[in-house]
Amino acid sequence: LVAMDQRNSLSSLSPFELRQIIRTEDPRIKTTTGLAYGFQQANVLLLPSALAKDFEAFCRNNTAPLPLLYVSKTGEASSGPLAQNADIRTDISQYCVYEHGRMLKTVSSLKEYSNCLKDMVCFYLGCSFGFEGKLKEAGVPVRNVEQQKTSTSVSCLPAGIFRCPLVTHLNPLAHGAPVHIGDPALLGIQDLSRPEYGDAVDPQPGDVPVFWACGVTSMEAVLSTKPALAFSHSPGCMFLTDLPDSSSPVGPFRLSQHPLLYSLASKRAVHKIRELEKIVAEDPGNRGISAIVLQDELLLSCLALSHASSVAITTGFPTHYMHNPPDETDGPPGAVAMANMLLSLGKQVTMVSDRRGLQLNQDLIDEAVTSGVLSAPVPLVTFEDNGPDSAVRFLCHDGDISKPRYDHLVAIERSGRAADGNYYNMRGINIKHLVDPIDDLFVAAKEIPGISTTGIGDGGNELGMGKMKERVKSLMPKGDLIACDVPADYAITCGVSNWGGYAVACGLFLLQNCPSHQRYLKKGLGLNGTAPPEESQRWTSGLPSVDKEESFLSTLVRFGVRSGKTGNLAMEVDGLTFHPTHSELIARLLKVTHST
């Protein structure tokens, strides 16, 4: 109880007052956990000046584990703008001493090394301990602090002689937002009960693992480069700065349960994607679709697609069942718009077609590439039900569910299977004879870890809309009959399905230009800042535009594809010209995407 009272009395002191106590080697301060709440604490590493340039570059390459607060001048004992009247030789409660890449001992002062320090540079790196209080205020338990414990296979980006693994930590670090939320295996960590650093944390029921980059990465760098002499803080014994803590995580948004995966994005990007969702959910045809709209499905789908590396897209709704070809102009333009953006982001894209429409879809892809609507050809495949394992063998290499071929499936304006096994258009006419069982892929994906799915529709009878089938049954005309029974993980409802494809493309562009999201995708590794001009141009060229959509529409019409909607929802006017409803909507989406 006495020790606890002493600790509580220390917690009210300022960083300056605490540094003065640490300087006297007061035994009450063994670690700085829970001290100087509201102020940043720093990891510290002192290296020979000959290594300083390489290590500074290494820090700038790996900003999450090694966020630079200050780099001292050679031989400087004070800490510049970080703290007044500080002395790095005495103001940490315990230091580690390294010789030739091996930790030799710990000491409570570096004064005996004063001569050596004259040719050394001190690196002050952002750290965790000032951020714990914010999570506590928000009601988020920090297990390692509760249990009084401190703790990959991801590699840092090298610089000069420095290279080492990224060390992660089940502790909220003021290195910015987390680098991973969810299944540890996705970060290369196979067993949380056996950490490579520190103590194992005992998770409680319902806990979600959250990983921040850890300042121990700097110690790993020292061990890997083996300088003749180096010093660091001892884990848990940080340098207390006078800087207010301004760290703030964003999100998270859960993307999947198996494996458990969350994602992050900035408030600005999230707000813009929600604005896109509002625009495409408008109902100019007064068809009642607002009643079946689910909020944030566009945001979650875009986040999941941003994490994906290989995406399969399918479309095709044979509304004109007595015409050849029977398909409508809603669907293919949105599918191509998504494919084009995904290609611009360096992702693999495959199109999945009904067998009856294979040649038509191949011709459409070829024309899209020739006209510049699609930046590169994409593979076109079909799916046949040849037995109970057909879907798994299609989705996974050698039928092995641990080796998925795709990590996201997207269906846009694709006929969806109803509860009775048939496929219906909005008039309730059964068109099953024109539809291949691509729904089976979405059903199978539910049982394959690592594959997520998106459905985009405008009536409730499209593949993936099974997620809101009860709403469709009760609120849409002929809903009991036509409602799709097959759900997707994310179901985007739009006034016209093509609009959803355009919005997904814009949402992906926003996430690609969102520093918070990109940092999370890259596990906090790599340089922050503006992308090279050629990359920015490639992403921008991946966006939909009125010119691209009019060009692709003319191709569809030339191949005999007709609009499935009438009035102001029809894609074309007089059989060819893009309808103003659609051109105006694309302009609005692009205005939101590019606005500052």
Automatic annotation (TrEMBL):
InterPro entries named in the record: D-Glu_cyclase, GLUCM_C, Putative_hydro-lyase
Record's keyword annotation contains Zinc: no
Keywords recorded for this protein, A-Z: Lyase
Molecular functions (GO terms): D-glutamate cyclase activity
SUPFAM superfamilies, A to Z: PSTPO5379-like (SSF160920)
Gene3D superfamilies, alphabetized: PSTPO5379-like, PSTPO5379-like domain, TON_0340
Residues covered by the D-glutamate cyclase-like C-terminal domain: 276-589
GO biological process, one term: glutamate metabolic process
Homology family: Belongs to the D-glutamate cyclase family.
Protein name: D-glutamate cyclase
Annotated organism of origin: Neogobius melanostomus (round goby)
